[in-house]
Design a protein that fits this description.
Radius of gyration of chain B: 27 Å
Mean pLDDT of chain B: 84
Order of helices and strands of chain B: HHHEEHHHH
CATH architecture of the largest domain in chain C: 3-Layer(aba) Sandwich
Order of helices and strands of chain C: HHHEHEHEEEHEHEHHEHH
Chains: A alpha/beta, B mainly alpha, C alpha/beta
Strand order of the largest sheet of chain B: 1-2
Shape of chain C: elongated
Radius of gyration of chain C: 23 Å
Number of domains of chain C: 2
Number of strands of chain B: 2
Number of domains of chain B: 3
Strand content of chain B: under 5%
Mean pLDDT of chain C: 89
Shape of chain B: extended
Strand order of the largest sheet of chain C: 5-2-1-6-7-8
Strand content of chain C: 5-15%
Largest sheet of chain B: 2 strands, antiparallel
Distance between the termini of chain B: 17 Å
Largest sheet of chain C: 6 strands, parallel
Number of helices of chain B: 7
Number of helices of chain C: 11
Largest interface: A-B, 88 and 63 residues
Low-confidence stretches of chain B: none
Oligomer: heterotrimer
Helix content of chain B: over 70%
Distance between the termini of chain C: 21 Å
Chain lengths: 499, 220, 291
Amino acid sequence: MIRNVIYGILLALMSVCLALAQTDAVPQDSAGTAPAAISPPQPVTGLTAKDTPDDHGHSITLKWTLSPDDQGGAHSVRTYEVFRWVPFFMDSMHARQYSVDSLMGLQTLWRRYLPFAKDSIKYFEKSGNAETARRFADTVAYIEKRTSTLRGEIKSLQRGIENDWERAPQAHAQYPNGGEWQMVGQTFAGQGNYVNSGQKDNTASDYLPNGCNFYYRVDAVTADPKIRTSSEIVGPVQATGQWYNVGRTPSLFATGIFVLLVLLFVRAARKGKELYVRPLAGIEAVDEAIGRATEMGKPILYVLGLGTAADIATIASFTVLARVAKRVAEYQTELIVPTYDPIVMSVAQETIKSAYADAGRPDSYREEIVFFVTQNQFAYVSAVNGIMLRQHPATNVYMGKFFAESLILAETGALAGSIQISGTDEIAQIPFFVVACDYTLIGEELYAASAYLGREPVLLGSLKAQDYAKAAVIILAILGAIAVNFGWTEFREIFRVVR
Amino acid sequence: MHKRQLPFILVFIFGAFMAVQYFMPHESSEFIYEFFALDWVPIIGIFALALGIWSLIKVSWDKIKHRRQDWQYSVVLLAGLFTIIFFGFFVKVGEHWEFRFMTSDGLQSYMFRHLFDYIVIPGQATVFSLLAFYIASASYRAFRARNLLATLLLSAALIMMLRFSPIPGLGEYMSKTATWLLNVPNLAAKRAIIIGIGLGMVATAMKVVLGIERGYMGKG
Amino acid sequence: MDMFAKMMALDRRWVFLTLAIVCVVAYGLTFEVPILINDEVQSIYNFIDTLKPGQIVFIAVDYDPSNQAELQPMLYALMEQCFRKDLKVIITALSQNGPGMADQAIRDVSDSVKLDRTYNGVNYPGRTVERGKDYVFLGYKPYPSLIILGMGQNFRIPFPTDYYGTPIDSLPLMKGVINYDQVACVISLAAGNIADMWIADGQGRYNFKLAFGLTGVMGADYYPYLSSKQIFGIMAGQYGAAQYEKLTDNKGMAQDGMRIQLLAHWLIILFIIIGNIGFFASRRKLKEQGK
C-alpha cells in the first residue's frame, strides 16, 4: 500500500517536471516579430476503425481520408496523431505491474549482490576492518530476511493483478467517464492508415486487451504541434482473434488437392496398378558401394549433413541410412556416422539400431557407430576430413543438407580415393557434388530415395502424385504468364497468399 | 508393439497440429504452438546436446584408453573441450576464480573472448578458405569444352569471373551480361528445381505425418 | 607423358601453390578495382537511405567467423549507414558463433560513429550510440526457424532479455515494438539455410520487407525470390559487399579484398585455358592417330 502511494507521488512529480520542461521548450515570441500564424488544418474525414482481420486479436486497423490540407490546400499537415480513449484503470494496472517488475528486479539484483557481500565480509574480517565487515553482515542478514518473504509478496501481487484484469471490459464500457485520450501512434503526411497493435501479454506496458470497447480519433497536426484539428470520434470497436486466416485459403486449397492426389495414387498403387519410375544411378550405386567396402575390408562413412532432424533432406537421409545400415549389418562391414546435430545423432542411433535388428544382427550394433562431433560447421568438416584421411573409407555417402563444406568434403574424399555418393536439396551445392562425386542425387531425387529403395507401391504412388502436381504447376504458370500479359490480373490475385 | 507405434502416433498428432496451426491465427492455437514448439524444442535440443557431448567424450575416451590408432588427437579434442567449458563458467575476479552460472559473465571474460577471437575465428576462417583452393582445382578439372553444353557452361563461368575486370569496356559489358545470366537463365532453372523440391518436401512431410514413410525410424 | 597431357592433368597441388602466391602478391599491390553497382544492391541502399530518423532496421547476423571475409564488411557498412542516419537498429544472431561477430561489429562501428565523417558529400558529425536507445542486440537462441516464427508474434517470446541480460521491456527502443510490424525492414546476412527460413517462416508468414546479404556461392540461389518480390535486394559475396561500401562511400575490407579476388579469378581462368588447350591438343592427336 505504502509503496503504491510512493509510486503515485513519484509519478505525479515526474508529470510536473515534464510539464515544466515542455513549457520551457516552447520558444517565446519576441515583441513585434510575431511569426506567420498557421491556420488550423481541416480535419481528416471518413475515419473507420475495424478489428484487424486474420490475426490473434489485440489489434485495430484505422483508415481515414487525408485532410484536404495534406500536400494541398494550406500544405500545413505534417503528421497525423492517432488517439485512443484509455480508462484510468489501464494506467493503474500498469503501475501495479511496474511495482511487481521493480520487486523482481530487486530480487535479481540481490541474488547477484549476495555472493559479493559475503565475500566482502570474509575479506574485511581478514584485513582486520571489523566495522566494515559488520556493516556487510547486517546487509546480508537484512537481504536474507527480506528475500524469504519477497517471493510470496510478488506472487500475491501478481495474483491480484491477474484477477483484476477481468474488469478491463467494464472499465472500457464506462466511456467517456473515468478515462482520457492517449496518443497511441503517429503517421506522416500522405499516409491515411494505421494499425494500432499491442501485446497479448497483460504484463506488458503496451497490452491491448481483446473484447473491450475502444474509441479512436485522429488529429491532423501542423508544424506547430499545438495547432491541430481532431476528427470525429469512432467507436466502439473491439479487437478479436479469428479461428481461420482467410488470406491463406489458396494454400489450403493447394494442399488439399495435393493430399487428395497422393491418397488417390497410393490407393491405385495398392490395388496393384503398375507405376513406372525411371531408375536413379545414385541409388543403385549404394548397394554396389557397400559390396566394394566389404571386399576391401574398409569402412563406409555416412555424413548426414548440417541439417536438423526437422529438415526434410535429413529425414530422407535417415531413410537411406536405414537401408545402408541394413546392408552393412548383413555384410558385417564397418560403418562410421559422425553427426553435427545432437538430435540427429539420437535419431540416427535409433535408425541404425532398428536396421541392425531388422537384418537379424542386433548384437553387432555398437553405440559408437554414430557419434556427435560439434555444432560448428568448419570444425565438423575438419573432423570428417580427418576421418577420411586417416581411415581411408571405401565409400563416402553424403546425404542431407550441405553448405559451403560440400566441396571441401567431396574433394578430400576424392583425394583419399573413396567412391562417393551424394544427395542434397541445397541447389548451390549440387554443382560441387557433381564435380567431385561419382554419383549425385539432385534435389527431390533425394526425397524420392526411399521410394526407390523400398519399391513399395505406397511410396511410388506419392511420386506419381508429385509428377501430376508439377504438371499442374507448369500449366498454371503458363496460364498465369498469358493472363498477366493480356492484363487479366485477377487470375494472378486468385493465388495470392497474404499473412 | 507400443514402442514402435507410439512415435508414429506422436508424429501424426504434432504434424497435423502444425498444419492446422498455419491456418488458425487464434490465441488458443498460438498458445499450444508456443508451448510445444517454441518451448519444448529448445529444451529437447539442450538435453540432446548433453547426450551428444557425452557420446563425444565416450568415443574419445575409449580411443585413449585402448590406445587405438591416432589416439593423440582425442587427447587434443578433450583438452580443448574442457578448456573452453572451464573459461565459459569461471571468471577471474581479483586473485581467485569464481564460478558463474546463469549469467553471461563467462562469455564476456578475457580468456573466453581471447580463445574465441584468436583460435576459433582464425581456425574456422582457415578451413573455409580451403574452399577457394578446392574451387580453383575443381574448376580447372571440370570446365572443359567437351561438347556444346559444356562449352556453354564454360562461357557462363568465364563471364561471371570477368565481370569486375578493370579492362575498360570489358568489365561493364561482362557485368551486364553476368546480371542477365543470373536473372534469366539461372533464374528459370533454379525456379524449376525449387518448385520440384517444394512439392517433394510437401509430399515427404505428408508421408511422414501420415505414417506412409517410416524409413527414418529404421524400417527401410 | 607429353606436354599436352601434362597440361590436362596438372597435379592439384600446383594449382593450390600458385593460387596462394597470387593471393599474397595481390595483397601487396595497390591498384583499385572498379566497382559497378547492381540494381539488387542499389535497392537495399535506396531503401535504407530514404528511411526517416527513428525508423527501425532489423539486422540478422546469421553467419559464423568463417564467412566474415564476405559478410562482415556488409554488416559494418550497413550499421554505420543506419547510425549515421539516426535509424534505430535491432540485431539478432541466429547462427551459433554469430553473437561474437555482431558484438565485435557493434563495438567497432560505435567507435567509428564517434568521429566526424563525410559520406557522399554529406557531413555527419560524430555521435555516441547508446545500447537500448539506438540499438538493441537480442543475441542468439538455437533453432532459427522457431525463433523467426516466434519473433513474428512477439520479440519477447524468444528474447525476454537482450544479449546482455537486460529485460527488453526496459529498453527505450523496444517500447511499442512488438514484432516485425514495427520494423521498416529485415536484412539477414546469412551464410546457410537460415536465409531459407527467413523466407519461409519469416517473410512468407509475416509479410515484412526482407533483403539478404549472402555468400558468393549462395547468391545465385536467391534471385528467384528477388523477381517474385519476396525480397527487395541481395548483396552477394565480397563483390556485393564492395558495392555496398561504394554506395555508402565507406571504403572497407570488401573493396580492399577485390584486388585479390580479381587476380585469383584471372589465375583460375588461366588454368581453365591451359586445361582446355591440353584437352583440344590431345583430342586432335588422338584423331590423327585414329586416322
